[in-house]
Amino acid sequence: MAVNVNTVYQTVLLILNQQQRGYMTPDEFNKVAAQVQLTIFETYASDLNQQYRVPQNDTDYGNRIKNIQLKLQPFQKYISNATLAGAITGTNPFTLNIYDYTNPTAPVAGILGDFYRLGSVMYRGTELNQYAQRSEITQLLLSPLTQPSINFPIFLYEAGATATPNNGLLYVYPTTIVDANDINIAYLAKPKNPIWAFTQMVGGLQGGVYLYDAGPSQDFELDISEQTEIILRILAYAGVIIEDPTIIQVASQAVASEDANEKS
Predict the structure, then answer these.
(1) What digits encode the pLDDT tens for the residues 113-153?
(2) Residue ranges of the alpha helices (H) in the chain?
C-alpha cells in the first residue's frame, strides 16, 4: 500500500501552520518529496546488509530482514529480452536501453526508464555468479585457471558511451556469448517521483488557493509504514526553506530516534 501524497502534504502544512511558522508551496513540496523518497529508498540496501549481520527472530512481523525485503519487492523486476524486445540490444557488449537519446533536445524514458540498480545477470537461465571490475578483467582472462567459459561466465557493467550517457553496457565473458536473447537481467527499479498536483482558484476570497487534483498526482511508492518518516524528513527540509531551526532540530531528532530504534 502506497503513501498518499495529499495526506503527507496536508500533514506537513498543518504542522507548519500551527504557530504561523511558514508555508511550503506545492512546487517546493514536490521537489523535497522526491528527494526524501529517494533517500529512504537508498537506505534499504544498507539496512538490509546491516540486518544480515545481526540475529533475527522468526515472528511474523518482527523479522527485520523480511520486512525490508517486502518493502523492496515492488521494485524488483526481471527482464527477459525474448519477451521484451529492445531491453537488451546489440552483440557483446550488450546495451541496456535505460534512456533513448535519439532526440538530444528532448530525451525520453527508454524501455528500462525506471532502471536504478543492476541486480542479477543470467545467461540462458543460469545466474552469472561473478561480477568483475574493469581492473580485474585482464587478470582473469590471462590465467588459465580463472578464464571464464560458457559454463562459468562472468560479467562487467559500465555506463554507456558519450552519446547515450544513461544507457548501460553489459560485457559478458567469454566473448563468444553474442546473442542478446540469451541474456536476462534482474534489476531494481526507481520509485516514481511523488507529485501533488493542483488547480489554483482565481478571484474572490479564495483567489490563489491551491486545490488538490488527484488525477495527475502521484503518490509515494514506498510502503505505508514509511509515512511517518516521510513526513518528518520533509519537515526537516521545510525548516530550511522557511529558515526555522526549531523545526529542523525537532524533525531531525525524531528521524534519528526512529532510525536508531529500527536498527538497534
Answers:
(1) 788 888 888 888 788 877 788 878 888 888 788 788 888 88
(2) 5-16, 26-51, 64-72, 134-142, 227-241, 245-263
By residue count, the chain amounts to: 264
pTM of the model: 0.80
Q: Which residues contact 33 (CB under 8 A, 6 or more apart)?
A: 5, 8, 9, 193, 194, 196, 220, 230, 234
Cell of 89: 540490444
In the chain, where the domains are located: 5-72+209-263, 92-178
Residues 206 and 203: their CA atoms lie apart, in Å, by 7
What 8-state DSSP symbol labels residue 164? S
Q: Is the pLDDT of residue 53 over 60?
A: yes
User: How many whole angstroms separate alpha carbon 249 and alpha carbon 222?
Assistant: 25
Strand 154-159 with 130-131, pairing: parallel
